[in-house]
Write a structure and sequence with these properties.
The chain is of the alpha+beta class. The chain is elongated and about 65 Å long. It has 9 helices and 20 strands. Helix content is 28%, strand content 28%. The protein has 2 domains: 176 residues, FAD/NAD(P)-binding domain, CATH 3.50.50; 151 residues, 2-Layer Sandwich (D-Amino Acid Oxidase, Chain A, domain 2), CATH 3.30.9.10. The strands form 4 sheets. Strands 6-7-5-15-16-17-14-18 form an 8-stranded mixed beta sheet. Strands 9-2-1-13-20-19 form a 6-stranded mixed beta sheet.
Length: 388
Amino acid sequence: MSKPHAIIIGAGFTGTATAHDLALRGFDVTVIERGDLCNGTSGRTHGLLHSGGRYAVKDQESAIECIDENNILRKIVPQVIEPNGGLFIALNESDLQYGEAFIEGCEACHIPLEELKPGEALRLEPNINPKLLTAFLIPDGTFDPLRLALSFAATAKKNGAKFRTYTEVKSLIVDGKGNVVGVNVMDRRLNKSQEWRADIVVNATGAWAGEITEMAGAHVPVKPTPGVMVAYEQRFIQRAINRLNKPGDGDIVLPQRRMVVVGTTSFEIDNLDYVPVLENHAKLMLERGAELIPAIANAKMRGKYMATRPLIGAGEGRSAARTFKCYDHKETDNVDGLVTITGGKATTLRAMAEKTADVVCSKLGIKAACMTKEVPLISYRRYYTMPN
């Protein structure tokens, strides 16, 4: 009996993780990506392994998803993670007032936290603002974005998944009943059009999800919301440093290799394929970053860049939920053969893949349990050494 064939559009975090999950469940998997792995948003994240602390007050569903997946990723892919922890620091009375709700939120979302006196926090991180009033230690971490995706992709590849990079979806193949049965693609290296059929098509294109669903006359309520980040050429800290207040612009500084990254802003765009790195946003990151780490004010800039979040649900910008949703377009648009996964965070990539694979298996009448909570991922280096 032949394996069911799934085509996954998008080779970012969600696409590679879904390929890994479906390959373990016995699928023949083909992943299509118009660039290389992490060509879009996944390649431009600041690399925070969320503890859920940022969302524990106003978005507890997302907070619980983050802490649960944080623990799982530490176990299955430790080779790409710095389990260095994080600090939420208060610099004024408004921050202190928020701290009360922060404690309650973290306890409600089973996020471990420890309150530190200013002197204790400064002994851990001597370069943070010495005027801090209090601090909370939480289990944040950092990860290497490309290596995280490559680890999922390599393990999927080991189990038979095929990755077709520099291959762009030009249209979805829709049968006479209005259902999706495959994709028309352009191999950008060969400048050659091809037609591929499948039992199911998974749309894992993040902020671009709406453009894919429109090809089949379907809809998904994704809100592409970019933000600007700035990297500086010195590693001033060993832990993620967050402002103890509701999420805002420039309220986090992350250590990445020999650098720190300050992020992020939030704004709207018209063209997904051209997002400007706004100069006033970069300047704001310098100002806000220096509030947390004063030495940033005189640091050399390494680079400034942006990423586009695929937000879903009610609210705009910062008020929109950071949770994820999987759409079976048979239920939402009466278009069979197409499933979309969008929203979420890099930290929740495995859970997003599990939910998507559950929906795919249910649609095709396949009984196969998820194994990704327990299966260790192989080295990210193997992606490039295995045949495709």
